[in-house]
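Page 47, continued from p. 46.
Same chain as before, 129 aa.
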Amino acid sequence: MNTRHLIDYGYFFFLEDSIYDNFFVKIPSGVRTRDELFDVLSEKLKFPEYFGRNWDALDDLFRDFSWIPEHTVILAHADMPMDNPALQRTYLEILRDSAADWKSGEAHKFIVTFPSSLHEKVDEILNTV
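Result:
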């Protein structure tokens, strides 16, 4: 077998082994209410049954992840969930604070992403007094 031929395929990528220690979750577009958001997060992140479906409970779980064996939890949003700006702000503050709370060397790392087109909107929501 000619191994050189295998190397020439342009569609193979060789990544650092640590890339496979990620739990990747995509929050789809079209999540319009807090209850819908809690449903999606609970399903995709496999929340424990004791999730209380409120902001405090969400904040607690974003600072725990003990039920997820992978080190890095990546929460990728397709768009800004929920239509209500006050709820968006609460959600963004929880995401920001809980992601910042995870320190290097701890059991998990929490990465939150949004499309680059939402950068200004996220800044605006978080900086509204």
